[in-house]
Each structure stands twice: as C-alpha cells, then as structure tokens.
Amino acid sequence: MPSTMLQEPKMTQDRAIELEAARLPIPAADPSPATEPGPPKIQSVPALLVDHVTKRFNVSRKKPPVTAIADVPLRLERGSTIGILGANGSGKSTLIRLVSGLLTIDEGRVEVFGHDIEREEMAVKRLINRVSVDAAFFKKLSPMENLLFAARLYGVEIGLARQEAVRITGRLGIAEKRLGRPLEQMSRGMQQKVAIARALLTSPTLLLLDEPTTGLDPRSKLEVQTFIEEIRESHDASIVLTTHDLEEAERLCEEIVVLNDGRIVAQGSPNALKRLVAERHGEAPTMHNVFMTYTGRSLDEDVEEGDPDDE
After folding, report:
1. How is the chain classified by DSSP, letter by letter?
2. pLDDT tens-digit profile of 22-59?
3. What is the pTM of this model?
C-alpha cells in the first residue's frame, strides 16, 4: 500500500529552493529501452514517518507556550541512518523523545514501520530502543544484572541474553570480568557503553541514539561508531542519531537534518549539503560550514533561559 507522501513545511521560496537543492540527486534513468511496461512500483513502508509534528511546552502561566518542535516532517527508510544536528536547545532531544513515546504530540503524527505511536503504543515499543546521554541504571547492580533485567522486560530468553550481553559488551571493549562489578564503580564512559549494549541486546529494528558517544574517550568513541556500522549492516537496523560530533554524523549518516529553533533548516546527504554551501554561499565544503551557514550558531552554544529543551 503506498505510503503517505509528506508535504514540505511552510517556508520562504528561497529556503524551499535551498532545501530542495540539498536533497540527494535523483538517479539518472536507464538509457536502455524498456521492453514491456511493468506494474507500478509500490513504495515500502518507512522505518520512521514524522508527519508535520509540533510540540509545545508551557513554562509559565504568564508566558505563552514555547514551541520546541515546529511542523517537522521526516522520513527514514528501512536500513538507513539519519543524523539530526542542532545547537543546544534546537529541539533534537525533544524530537527523539516524541518518536520514542516519552512525550505526547501536540500536532501531527508519528509512525514506526506503519504503526501509529499513539494508537499502537505496545507494538511500537517492541520495535524501538533508545540510548540517551543520561541513561538510567540500577547503579548498585552489575552491568550483567542490568542487561538481564532489560532482556526480561523485552521477553528475551535469559540464556540467550547472557550470551549476547557478553558478545556485545566485548565488542564495545568491556572485558567479561568487569560485568560482575557494581555499575557505580565504572566510569561514565563505560556506563554509556553499557547503555548502548542494553539497547542493542533487544535487537531493535529502529534504534534511537541520542548523543551516544558523548563523554567517551577517542578510542571508545571509535569502537562505538564502528559497532553502530556493524549493527546496521548485520541486523538491517534503521537508526536515528543525534550528535554534536560533525565528523561522526558525516561518517555514520546517509542523510542529515539540521534543526534550528525547532524547525528543519537544511536536509540532504553530507556531500550534497557541503556542495550547497560551496556553490551558493562561497564557503569551504565542510560540515562545520554547513552547520554555521544554516544555524548561525555554535554546536555548544548555551540555550536561552527558560528554554525547556536544554539539550
């Protein structure tokens, strides 16, 4: 059944032209003559469909609501990775929380593999898992105990969960002998690796990674990035990644969305976006210049006081 086609968000004509120019080019048609006209192609159901979603927060009775996400459309195909870039307070984490069902949607809708996240909540929860920069654990318990607890919640058989926990944590650079120690004795970087292992343990088909490598040392960051690539290839996982690391986004993502003040201001492949800032704005073709051109802000710029999305 054909998927619902998204309409572009309201914007100026110049911005619409720039967004369109940044998108992936349409492949050239096959020059060889067609023999017989075949049946029309049916577009597959996307891994994630964000249909013009808006989210507002009430911060004070005396002030109007703050719009954290404004009329955002997004489509992620199966097996692909999309990166979401934005300065602190741009709406990145709010968008991830909306997709994961942790926040209610004010306007629009979200579907995960064709399931509406509000009407089919349990079906969606079986398909997704989320890694956040502030992952919560039972700190007195060991990594293995935390991982097995999560596995039971998702109905994973304990014996299999234990084997997978050892394999995944080992691939992330955590020695098996450390899996029995209290989690509170591990560094923040090591705890973040356990959070990633916990998300991967349930083999989610849609993986939401909210700044997964924040706080990791360079070697650990590289291990995690490599493992994310392997998961995408071996498990056909679809991934949404928010990150402050422009090199990470360029390495892991086929498509990148730049958010500013809750709106999409640029979207396309890394190469298309870099080419656009070079051709239209005369800047060097780098992701840093892409980000600065379309937001005018630094990635770590402080949010304004009262902004509810303090990423």
Report:
1. -PPPPPPPPS--HHHHHHHHHHSPPPPPPP-SPPSS--PPPPPPPPSEEEEEEEEEE---TTSPPEEEEEEEEEEE-TT-EEEEE--TTSSHHHHHHHHHTSS--SEEEEEETTEETTTSHHHHHTTEEEE-TT----TTS-HHHHHHHHHHHTT--HHHHHHHHHHHHHHTT--GGGGGS-GGGS-HHHHHHHHHHHHHHT--SEEEEESTTTT--HHHHHHHHHHHHHHHHHH--EEEEE-S-HHHHHHH-SEEEEEETTEEEEEE-HHHHHHHHHHHH---S-HHHHHHHHH-S-TTPPPPTT-S---
2. 443 333 333 333 334 444 444 588 999 999 999 999 88
3. 0.75
